[in-house]
Amino acid sequence: MTEYLIRRLLQSVLVIFLITVVTFLLIHAAPGGPTQVMLAPGLSPEAFEQQKRNLGLDQPVPIQYIRWVGDLLQGDFGYTFKNHLPVADLLWPRVGNTMILMGAAWLLTLIIALPWGIYNSTKQYGLSDQTSSFLSYIGFAMPTFWFGILLQQWFSLGLDWLPLSDMHTRGKENSIADLLMHLVLPITVLSLGSLAAYIKYARASMLEVLEMDYIRTARAKGVKERKVVFRHALRNALIPIITILGLDLPSLVAGAVLTESVFNWPGMGRFFVDMAIAREYSVLMAITIVTSVVVVAGNLLADILYAIVDPRVKLGGKGSTAA
C-alpha cells in the first residue's frame, strides 16, 4: 500500500509539473503575449526595454519559467498587470466559494444518485427506474447555461421564491440560511448532469454484481435480500463508481465555470472568465494551476479509495497486482 501511494504521488507530481510547463508556454504563445499587457503603452524604446528588465521579461523563457515555479512553490502567484494587486489575495477567497458550490453539488449528487441507482437495480423497469431514465435523458441533453436561466425565470423572477444570483444578500453576508437559499439554484444546475450519470452508473454496477455467482450462493443459503444487497454486493459495486467520481471531477469544474457565470457566483469560474476578457495572464495561470491541483488530488483520492474498497487489489510488494 505504501509503495502504491508513493508511486501515485510521484505520478501526480509529474502531471502537475507538465501542466505548469504547458500552461506557461500557452500563455506566452497567446496573441500579444504577456509582454503587451504588462508593459505600459506609449513608452519610448529605452523605457520599454527598461520596464522589460524590471519585470524579468528580458530573460529567456526557461529562466522566466523557473522563476515563476519558484514563486509558486512559495505561494506567490504574482500581481495583476493593470492594478498591481496580489493575485493570491484575489484568488483564494474565490477558491473557497467554488469549493462550497462544488462540494454541495457533489454531496447532493451522491446522496440522491447512489440510493436511487441501488434501488432501481433491485426493481428493474419499475416506475422508479423509468422515472430516473427519463430524468437522465433530460440531464444529459439539457445545456447547463440554459437550464440555469430557466430556473431563474421560474423560481426567482416568476415565483420570487429564491434569490436570482450572487452568493449573499447585501447585509446578510454572515447568514448561513441566506447562503443556503442562494445555493439552491446553482447546485441544482450543477448537479443535474452528474446526477443523471451516477444513477445510471450505480444501477448498472449493482446489476452486474447482483448477477455474480457468490450473490446467487448467498441467496441460496437464505441470506436476507437487504443483507445481500448492502453487505455483499454494494462494496464491489462501488469500485467503478469511485473511479467515475475521480474522472468526473474535471467535468464538475468545467460546469462550475458556466454555472458561476449564470448566477454571478463569486468563484474561480466566473473570475476566470472576467480575467480572460481582461487578459490578466498571471491570474489565468494561477487559476489553471489551482484547478489542476484540485483535479489531480481528486483522482489520487479516487485511487486510494479504490484500493481501500476492493480487498482483492494488492498494491505494492512482490507478486502484487496494481490497480
Automatic annotation (TrEMBL):
The keyword Membrane is assigned to this record: yes
TM ranges: 12-30, 99-122, 134-155, 175-199, 237-263, 283-309
Subcellular location: Cell membrane
Keyword ATP-binding: no
Domain annotation ABC transmembrane type-1: ranges: 95-302
InterPro entries on file: BPD_transp_1_N, MetI-like, MetI-like_sf
CDD domains, per database record: TM_PBP2
Record-linked Pfam families: BPD_transp_1, BPD_transp_1_N
Main location: membrane
Highest taxon of the lineage: Bacteria
Membrane topology listed for this record: Multi-pass membrane protein
Record key words, sorted: Cell membrane, Membrane, Transmembrane, Transmembrane helix, Transport
Family that this chain belongs to: Belongs to the binding-protein-dependent transport system permease family.
Protein name, per record: ABC transporter permease
Organism in which the protein naturally occurs: Paenibacillus timonensis
